[in-house]
Amino acid sequence: MSSSSAKLPILPLPHPTVLLPGSRITLTVPVELGEALLTLIEAADALPVVAAVPVASDTDTNSLAEHGVAARILRLVRPPGRNSRQSYLLTLHGLTRIRLSASFTPDPDNSLVPCEVQYPPNSKDSPPRKVVDTFKQSAHRLLDRLAQDSGQQIRRDGYSKISAMLEDVTDARAAWMADILVGTVNASFADKLSILSTTDPEARLVVAAEIFSKLASISEVTSKIATQVEESVYKQQKEHFLRQQLAAIHKELQSLSGPGNLVNGQSSELDDDEQHEADDLADLKRRIEAMEPGSEERKMGVREWRRLKRIPQGSVENGVIRSYLEWLTAIPWSNSTSETPRAITDRSFLTAAREQLDADHFGLEKIKKRLIEYLAVVRLKEMNAERERQAAAAILPKVEEKSNVDDTKDKTTSPPIIRPTRKSVKGPILLFVGPPGTGKTSLGQSIAKALNRPFQRISLGGVRDEGEIRGHRRTYVASGPGLIVQALRKAGRSDPVFLLHVTPHLDEIDKIGGSNFHGDPSAALLEVLDPEQNHTFNDHYINVPVDLSQVLFICTANSLETISGPLLDRCEVVQLSGYTYDEKMHIARRFLLPKQLKQNGMDADHVQIAEPALMTIATRYTREAGVRSLERAIGAVTRYKAVEWAEHIDAQATGSPKPYSPVVQESELEAILGIARWDAEEREREERRGVVYGLVVMGQGEGGILPVETIAVPGAGRLKLTGSLGEVIKESGEIALSWVKTHAYDLCITESRAQDPLKVPELIDIHLHLPAGAQKKDGPSAGIAMACAFVSLLTGARVPANIAMTGEITLRGRVTPVGGIKEKVLGAHRAQISKVILPWANRKDVEHDVAPEIQRVMEFVFVRTVNEALEAAFGKDTLGWRNGISGPLMLESRL
Ligand SMILES: Nc1ncnc2c1ncn2[C@@H]1O[C@H](COP(=O)(O)OP(=O)(O)OP(=O)(O)O)[C@@H](O)[C@H]1O
């Protein structure tokens, strides 16, 4: 081995150019350098040789690499052009490696400075076979890849030629071949530099083999990714293309089958079945994918989706799974609202809520106050829960990180995702109780508006089967989710306000919860309302626990009697009563009329209802505790006026004006609403023997009067009771009769204490009937009315038709208190009753609950005994007491 040196002009190659032995390059050189090279060529006999050394760094042009190549100048040309600064094109051919003997700094003037260089010693030995083979293998692998990746045939041919040459190369020339190959393939600057600086042939083969393997691997991965991308794009394009073709074929087929299938020459939207089918499925899939990973609902969705794919389209089972998935994906699962709605956190929330309640409702001051308290509590709890949620969220990422790691190990047994859920707002559930149309639903709506949440009303009227609340299992034909999940879907959010209206079925007085073989609906209802259980509410159809803890439940009922004990236990009752006429007038003016005007496209200038007319609508056309029929009647009046107004405008346009008056007078009402409904009844109500008016609260929670009718018929001294009466009311009839029999002598009905008024002087039966026979009646409160009716029948004295009464009696003749006083008095007022007889113990109810304007216009008589009730009903001294009024009282006190 021998090494030699020489002096060669140094030509720095601009970064990142590297010339390797055996390769050629052409590069542009600046004018000065070009001219220096020209001088060199002119001075030399043959083509001169320079030392082409790469610049090692792209930032510092003075830092030359240690190794370079002795290169022959093959060509130096100056392309034609007028510019004197035009650069030269230089072509070099690399001959052999050189090493700079000393560090060299290029000349800033681009002149060629000769410098001492050393030629590395030439090795005579061939590198070991194994090394050469490895080198060749890796070179072949790379060349094959490059040929595969290349789009041009000519390049592919080139790579195969090089491969063939490689086979023929002897071991001694393998290192030379390595130089050429590294120069040819797209090796990096660093790789080329490392090859250049490796002077030992064996080591060079090893380095080259490494470079080739690296490049082949990179190329393989790149082309794999490219293929995948290409495949997916291709698939999409193909699908799109095929769909287009399908649509075109359909269109053609339709045009062949005649123009009947075409709407205006175009296909109707009903024809595009397949497309819609595919779109629907894609939509379903997207919705499943959007579900929270790891959640129960998603797992169920994925499972059912896979089943759906296996089952042929058009089969019954396919339809069942489709509709199940539609439901599953339409439910707002709890992750959809993890933030507290803004409204509740606002400082002005309570003021805004108060304004909302005032804007929607007249009066109801106590109830509004209670609702504001309730909302204040809801707000505080929500805010506390939100704070806790944020604290939990801060530690949650760690938990999730862990669960992700586990996920990669085994996807099927991945732990359930722990969600930072908002805690439920626990507390009493409000129960609005009151007659229909008194504002229960609209109060619920106002609460929802104030909380900025969706509102849904769920009516449990006639619910007899647990499945209606909880859904039916999918094994049922036409099964589906229950009322709760249906409402949740309609609400579209997991934190709505639900108003549950609990009513008994029309012909069923017994409470919700009479359990039967279909399961107990009241148990399901209790579960829905129970904050401890409702975060995992199980709907039989959905079959994945649904979180109801964010739902705000409010219950409503018309009367407390329809509510079962356990349900009542969980609720806080807010009683709403009927309205007085005064209140109804205000509500009608301020709320109902404007609402109806808006609904019917009219404004206040076009329809005004005179005060007497409005009052007549309230008193003669409607007679209810609430204002629903009143609203309906006002709606009818506005629609009538809307027609008149439209005719007026049309007539104006045709030049024959028709007069229009916006004010509705009382005299017009009959033309608009027909004959008043309550006139006839009033006329019928006359003073009669044996008839007394009692006060009742009907099943709907509405107060009113009820005639107690009695007649005497020939018989055997018995009492006959009719009118769908319950046990309690029948018993109170018996008590009333026994009392009258005991006092028949004192009331001058019989001649001696021993005589039975039903047997002497004649043998009679008394028949007592409470009309509206189809409606079930029960309760003890008709006691005094029955006693009065018996006395009237047996004595012939009459009770005036403007008097009504209520009160339970005991056998000793005591009158004990009863419930529903407010409703009963309001009902009596509506029925134009002017005097009401009530138990003494109910004075406080009148004082507290009955509106002052009613107290002013009605007479209230509070009685402690039946004697006092008789006196109040028949009038002082009307009944001829044998011993004067004190007699029976003394007798009573002796007892
Ligand atoms: N105090 C009030 N102020 C203004 N409008 C009222 C008032 N009370 C009731 N209304 C109106 O009367 C109509 C009937 O009321 P709503 O539907 O709330 O009755 P409800 O008590 O829920 O009846 P039901 O028991 O039959 O469900 C609504 O349009 C409501 O806005």
What do these coordinates show?
There is one protein chain. The chain has 895 residues and is α/β, with parallel strands linked by helices. The chain has 6 domains: 4-119, Archaeosine Trna-guanine Transglycosylase, Chain: A, domain 4; 129-225; 278-330, no CATH class; 342-385 and 426-575, P-loop containing nucleotide triphosphate hydrolases (Rossmann fold), CATH 3.40.50.300; 581-678, Helicase, Ruva Protein, domain 3; 685-894, Ribosomal Protein S5, domain 2. It contains 29 helices and 24 strands. The strands form 6 sheets. Strands 18-19-17-16-20-23-24 form a 7-stranded mixed beta sheet. Strands 1-3-4-5-6 form a 5-stranded mixed beta barrel. It has a 5-stranded parallel beta sheet with strand order 10-11-12-9-13, sandwiched between helices. Strand 16 and strand 17 form a beta hairpin. Helix 2 (129-149) packs parallel to helix 6 and helix 11 packs antiparallel against helix 13. The N and C termini lie far apart (147 Å).
The gist of it:
It catalyses: Hydrolysis of proteins in presence of ATP. By secondary structure, the protein is α/β, with parallel strands linked by helices.
Write the SSE topology.
Blueprint: E1 4-13, E2 24-29, H1 31-43, E3 49-54, E4 67-77, E5 88-100, E6 114-119, H2 129-149, H3 153-168, H4 174-184, H5 189-197, H6 201-256, E7 262-263, E8 266-267, H7 273-289, H8 296-310, H9 316-330, H10 342-345, H11 349-360, H12 365-409, E9 429-433, H13 440-451, E10 455-459, H14 466-470, H15 483-491, E11 497-501, H16 521-529, E12 552-557, H17 565-570, E13 571-575, H18 581-599, E14 608-609, H19 611-621, H20 628-653, E15 663-664, H21 669-673, H22 679-684, E16 691-697, E17 703-714, E18 719-722, H23 727-742, E19 764-769, H24 783-795, E20 803-805, E21 808-809, E22 815-816, H25 821-830, E23 835-839, H26 843-849, H27 852-857, E24 859-863, H28 866-874, H29 886-894
Parallel strand pairs: 1-3, 9-12, 9-13, 10-11, 11-12, 14-15, 16-20, 18-19, 20-23, 23-24
Antiparallel strand pairs: 1-6, 2-5, 3-4, 4-5, 5-6, 7-8, 16-17, 17-19, 21-22
Region (Disordered): 257-276
Protein name: Lon protease homolog
Catalytic activity: Hydrolysis of proteins in presence of ATP
